[in-house]
Amino acid sequence: MSEVPNMPTSPEEPDAIPVAPVLGEIETLVRARYPLIAILSWEEERVMTNLFRLADKLDKHLMEWSITRGLLRYRAHVPTQAEGRKGTKDPLAVLKSILDLSEPSIVVLKDFENYLKDSAVRRGLRDLALALRFTYTSVIILAPPFSIPRELDKDITLVDFPLPTMEELDDLLRRIEVEVDENPEYNITKGAEERHRLLEAAMGLTLAEAENVFAKTLVKTGRLGGDQVPEVFSEKRQIVRKSGLLEYVDVKESLDDIGGLVGLKEWLAERNLAFTDKAREFGLPPPKGLLLLGVQGCGKSLSAKAIASLYRMPLLRLDMGAIFGSYVGESESRIRQALQLAQGVSPCVLWIDEIDKGLGGLRGSGSGDSGTTQRVFGTLVTWMQENTRPVFVAATANNISVLPPEIMRKGRFDEIFFVDLPEAPTREQIFGIHLQRVGRDPQKIDCARLAEMTSGFSGAEIEAAVVSGLFRALHAGRDLETKDIAKAIEQTFPLSFTMREEIEGIRNWAKGRARPAA
Ligand SMILES: Nc1ncnc2c1ncn2[C@@H]1O[C@H](COP(=O)(O)OP(=O)(O)O)[C@@H](O)[C@H]1O
Ligand SMILES: [Mg+2]
Q1: Strand (E) or helix (H) holding 53
Q2: How many other CB atoms are there within 10 angstroms of residue 111's CB atom?
């Protein structure tokens, strides 16, 4: 195999690149003379190329600042060793020199979030914000998602810079095509449908990541076409997993694997076309998501998985523990990052399993949550309201008492379902499902009797009883019989016995607030 093909660099002509849709929003802010804007993105180069185009349109200079070079005029291919203006490397000094700029400018400060820890820099920034109100210069802090210090909250306007759109990725592919055109070793598909699937598989990656994945695949297989879609997709899975916040989950479960929960199933069945073009043309907005709360082991996580297979969308699990487990101030930026990623990967089901996880600890630890919970949920809720991409949020919770009330308010989730312990007929059904799963004929087992015996059992405990029964039968040297499972049931103390009060508490809370899933 030959070496990696030369990948395209940003074009000289700013007009040649497709514009990120968010640029319109940034333009509005600049025109309205917002003095301080923070753009949250991992993609410095892509943002700069876009801002270059904006500056060009508004007839302003695009300036950039970094601690290594100081303040200088941005040009598409400036060698990195180029030096900025004298005496502007210091973060405080640059704030002063911005005021002296004679031309209307857009000034981009790189990595500046690091210097906000210094109170003098924060003060300098606030003074600058005030002074800039009477000029045609805007300052942009360009950084990966970070938390703005409280005292700057009112001065800085936050803008999330979403990951590349399909059009931007398509443009990338076209540029790669031009690049390898002369090389007979490399073949990029011309089929529109194949290209669409390739691009779809790359959605959710940064432009640089997508470029790497395409290049790597091209070198490995000599081709970029329909056959390489799984390759590109599995590369993406790895990249997403490395973020440490989201994880692709393989789904085998469907609605048929859930016993009971008829109300929930009906709600879902009615919406099985929710994410199709047909629904959109019919005038329906895509659903935002569901909150499932209730007793442990009764099928909440199972339902989240089944939702992904119903909609035939990938399932991305968001780990709330990882969001809240981080350093103070990082939680909010992490949730932003995760949501950006989900948006990029969409259409998808975003599974927030045990949304309450980590909250109890935070409050109980006495460390003074200092509003982190509020901010994280506030970010989530606002995002759910504003997001227009097809992301279905499936959240589950065991303990609602720790959740901030705004998450439960009407209009956030499409519906809140309460999942209770299964009644006898449902328990019978659950026995049937799990017997089938282990390759046994439910007709040969007295499921009705077992259901009678298991009042207060959760679905998970029923499943466990089937498994213990199997061990018993194996040990006895014969196939499974009803009595094996019955014995296992006798030896089980279901969680609901010890947690009676807690469960009663959730039930009471759910009355009138949540719809019964059964
Ligand atoms: N209603 C149910 N029907 C079939 N199996 C169930 C049901 N509820 C629980 N189970 C079994 O118990 C396991 C654990 O349930 P899970 O969905 O993780 O519970 P939780 O409500 O705590 O998220 C499931 O993977 C499934 O095998
Ligand atoms: Mg669960």
Answers
A1: helix 44-58
A2: 16
DSSP letter (8 states) at residue 446: -
The neighbouring-strand residues paired with 290 are 394, 415
Residue nearest to atom 18 of ligand 1 (CA): 301
Substitution site in 253, 302, 356, 428 for ligand 1 pocket (most atoms within 8 Å of beta carbon):
302
Rounded Cα gap, residues 395 and 291, in angstroms? 5
Check if the beta carbon of residue 135 is closer than 8 Å to that of residue 100: no
The C-alpha atoms of residue 335 and residue 407 are separated, in whole angstroms, by: 15
Task: State which of 298, 354, 447 you would mutate to test the pocket of ligand 1, scoring each by most atoms of that ligand within 8 A of its C-beta.
Answer: 298
Atom of ligand 1 nearest to the CA of 303: 17
**What architecture does CATH give domain 424-498?**
Orthogonal Bundle (1.10)
pLDDT at 4: 45
Q: Where in the chain is the domain with CATH 1.10.8.60?
A: 424-498
Backbone angles phi, psi at 349, to 5 degrees: -100, 125
Token pair recorded at residue 333? 């930026």
Report how far Cα 193 is from the mean position of its chain's Cα atoms: 27
CATH number of 249-419: 3.40.50.300
DSSP label of 353: E
Residue 199, classed as helix, strand or coil, is helix
pLDDT digits (tens, 9 = 90+) for 296-341: 999 999 999 999 999 999 999 998 888 887 666 788 888 988 999 9
Rounded Cα distance between 165 and 159, Å, is: 17
Read off the tokens for 346.
């969409």
CATH architecture of 22-160: 3-Layer(aba) Sandwich (3.40)
Ligand nearest to the CA of 426: 1
Q: How far, in Å, are 49, 62, 77 from residue 72 at the CA level?
A: 16, 9, 13
Instruction: Report pLDDT digits (tens) over 52-87.
Output: 999 999 999 999 999 999 999 998 766 666 788 889
Give the separation between CA 477 and CA 371, rounded to whole angstroms: 59
